[in-house]
Please model this.
Amino acid sequence: NAGVTQTPKFQVLKTGQSMTLQCAQDMNHEYMSWYRQDPGMGLRLIHYSVGAGITDQGEVPNGYNVSRSTTEDFPLRLLSAAPSQTSVYFCASSRTPAGTNEKLFFGSGTQLSVL
Amino acid sequence: AQKITQTQPGMFVQEKEAVTLDCTYDTSDPSYGLFWYKQPSSGEMIFLIYQGSYDQQNATEGRYSLNFQKARKSANLVISASQLGDSAMYFCAMRAYGNKLVFGAGTILRVKS
Model:
């Protein structure tokens, strides 16, 4: 079982460039989300989706766009990369959006450096 | 607003001893779930244990147990019989109303031989 698949694993961008981080899950999960991990700050929620066609902002949404056209895919777009967006990015999904007992399944992460 | 606080940036423990990693939380929702994840140096996020706010007993999963004190809003992770492979970053997280899973800053655990 693939679970949650993120690509690429590593990426280096120049300031101002745009790119898309890909995320796909094969578990038919309704809920998908993107986090960024920075030292000393844990994981912070960027955007999330409770189903196809529905997205919402998390704690740190500025500079990022998302869309959810299918249940399986939830890409994260950096519109104009900035050094402050250097981070490790995780995509995560859960079976349903509403349950407080629903654990998240994580992808393996993308290490992004913006120069 | 939901908040998770992990006050121990780093911890050391001797191999085969037990260790407690602290976690306090804040929420006004009566229904919530508390989670612990492990992140080894490889970077993956590994689910360890879950505790529901209405659960009467503390959760246990093998060598992991969760010391849940609802009145004090704490959900400490206890690892018994530490192993070298337990060296990792540990995150406490909470999921309440609104779908979001909120994480603490994490605690780095180092197991000494």
